[in-house]
């Protein structure tokens, strides 16, 4: 069981929850202002679905990199994976991926049933499609003849599913509407998620070169990937500030909504520390740190809008 828990890579879970928290609590704030009802059941089920997607993605990644020999090139304990190390067989991990895919789909249907049935049938079918796409995206990163993670497209998929789909989709589940300003927090969470993936790929840049995994970081080169990382870590708070400005908070006396901007200080420190790294393998601790910053961005936004407002 310990090996399965380790393979689930629990440190990635806060990152996956960030988009749901951001979208759900912006929806709560907006519904409260309009006299609407915020359904806690949708929130609970959305968290469950997201956790299942993330663990599915981690298991699929472990399996895909394991059978392709990519993980065999990794040399540090932090980079070690279950299939490559032999702690879990490829067949066992493949079965786990299949089971989690089924569980993820069942949980998705349950979530959408609560959110849309019986009054929003068209939306129900559209989101079923999004759910299936999310499951396929989780699997397709490293599995298959042409896994998109090996073609340098991982950043695009992470931006779409961890950012736009997660934030805007969860917002829609509650409000049954789309608002263009939601693209700002959706992009912010998406870029922070890309920052974590890029750090991961920068850490593995040497082993990926040996195994033929052409991540975006490998394509850019370590130096340019570092510049890309700084951009990804710089823009999200600016986007959140734009979101607050668009919604008129600069004209109010409620300054608590700006509590999210306190993250400017720890993010500045993290950026300086990342820039000082010369050995790619020394980047590993920052994956967790940036993931926590993403989670805190969502939590502080939720607090500022709903509890201090």
TrEMBL record:
Reactions catalysed: an all-trans-polyprenyl diphosphate + 1,4-dihydroxy-2-naphthoate + H(+) = a 2-demethylmenaquinol + CO2 + diphosphate
Compartments (UniProt record): Cell membrane; Membrane
Protein name, per record: 1,4-dihydroxy-2-naphthoate octaprenyltransferase
Recorded name of the encoding gene: menA
Organism of derivation: Chryseobacterium profundimaris
Membrane topology classification: Multi-pass membrane protein
Keywords: Cell membrane, Membrane, Menaquinone biosynthesis, Transferase, Transmembrane, Transmembrane helix
Enzymatic class: transferase
Major place of residence: membrane
